[in-house]
Amino acid sequence: MKHCRTKTGELRLRHEGKDFLLDGNGSDLPDELAESIRSHVNVVVEEVERMAHSRSVRRPKDADEAGEGSVSWLDLAEQVQQATRAVFAEPATYTPPLGSPVAITGEYDAAAVQVELEGGVAVQTVGPRIAVLLSELPGSAAAIGAGVVVRGISYTVTEIEPDGHGMALLRLRRV
């Protein structure tokens, strides 16, 4: 299952070779697929609610005032990230330019991107990318030129966008 957001903000989903438009009116998804998506999203929402209700949450600026048993805002964000990854991440293989392949997990999508060409001409294309935990990569760092295989398709890493919280978005080009 792949998803992307179009230039106009529509969310499209590709499943088993068919494209579906997700909109505020329930979309044109088959019932079983819509139910599967709802159930995955509900798992994440329930986990976030459980974490928020099970302990008091303090923002980083409140660290000195926090009582025992509270969790920092950053810790809560990390737990939400873990819950999301548990639902949406899928297996992939990462091969550094000078190293051996390692099994990783990541949140893959092939979102629509707009590319500006010379002369102000814009072209819309697919921009495959995968969000990964840097700690899963050799040396805890991503490298431009590394190989990634996801869903049986080989890619090369062309850009790396670290988020400052231990994850990075790897922009990919099909080999």
What does this structure look like?
By secondary structure, the chain is an alpha+beta fold. The protein has two domains: about 1-90, no CATH class; about 90-175, Thrombin, subunit H, CATH 2.40.10. It is built from two helices and eleven strands. The chain has helices spanning about 30-55, 75-90; strands at about 1-5, 10-15, 20, 55-60, 70, 90-95, 100-115, 120-135, 145-150, 155-160, 165-175. The strands form three sheets. A six-stranded antiparallel beta barrel has the order 6-7-8-11-10-9. The chain has a three-stranded antiparallel sheet with strand order 1-2-3, with no helix packed on it. A two-stranded parallel ribbon has the order 4-5. Helix 1 runs antiparallel to helix 2 (about 75-90). The longest helix is centred in the N-terminal third of the chain and has 24 residues, at about 30-55. The relative contact order is 0.12. The model is unreliable at about 1-10 (pLDDT under 50).
Q: Helix share of residues?
A: 10-25%
Largest sheet: 6 strands, antiparallel, barrel
Order of strands, main sheet, comes to 6-7-8-11-10-9
Summarize model confidence as the mean pLDDT. 75
Unreliably modeled segments: 1-9
Judged by helices, strands and strand pairing, the structural class is alpha+beta
Shape: globular
Domain count: the total is 2
Terminal-residue CA separation: 21 Å
Rg for CA atoms? 19 Å
Number of strands: 11
- Strand proportion: 35-45%
